[in-house]
Amino acid sequence: MKRVFLTVSIIISVGFLSSLHAQRIMGALIGGFNTTNVQGDDVFGFRKFGINAGAAAIVPLGEKWSFTLEAVYSQKGAFHREGGRGMDYRYEHDYNQYKLQLNYLEVPVLVHFHDKKWLKAGAGFSYGRLVGVKEYEDHVRIATTTLNDGPYDTDEYSALLDVQFPIYKQLKIDARYSFSLFKIRTRTYENVRGDEEKIRKQYNQVLSFRLIWVFNESSSRESRLKEGL
Length: 229
Fold this sequence. Notes:
Elements lengths: L1 H21 L3 E14 L8 E13 L4 E16 L17 E17 L5 E18 L2 E2 L13 E14 L2 E10 L4 E6 L6 E19 L1 H11 L2
Antiparallel strand pairs: 1-2, 1-10, 2-3, 3-4, 4-5, 5-6, 5-7, 7-8, 8-10, 9-10
């Protein structure tokens, strides 16, 4: 997967360089953060923060549509502070603090619609490869949670919803919601009475807030106007 990610990154870089000649494809740098939750575990809320950063190639499809291919590093997971709210006490726990760190290399693909005021709204899908995982209970790392041996799936497929607003020249602010289409883990929980077990499928839920700096935007627009697109 690292080779795949490198290949995609090279494609984006080549696309950006070629835009200097084609004057239509735009490149972008991305930086921001995730606030994340794992649906199906025993802690609640978007309390885990992580990095979301990478690069993108943007291909205009006429005046109102565009296609975007990204390559990003994205940190996900879950967090529960000791003594805090947001834990499911219907089931037994032998810990009071919990932290899950899931690090992915992702390739999101989106189609955006542009309104007359340059608001962009889009949707798409993403493939993610798990490249790092750490799980803690009461600040002690769980030795059986590893990248090679599980229990978290190494491949993730997500659906995306995305909104962008211009804030200064080529600088955009971006808000995105993503949700795993397939489970990332299955875990069994036992209730406090010990007479019932519940098998839960777990899914990543992510809210991302990012700044995007777009290169070659003016030249791309001028080129499309000349071509009548």
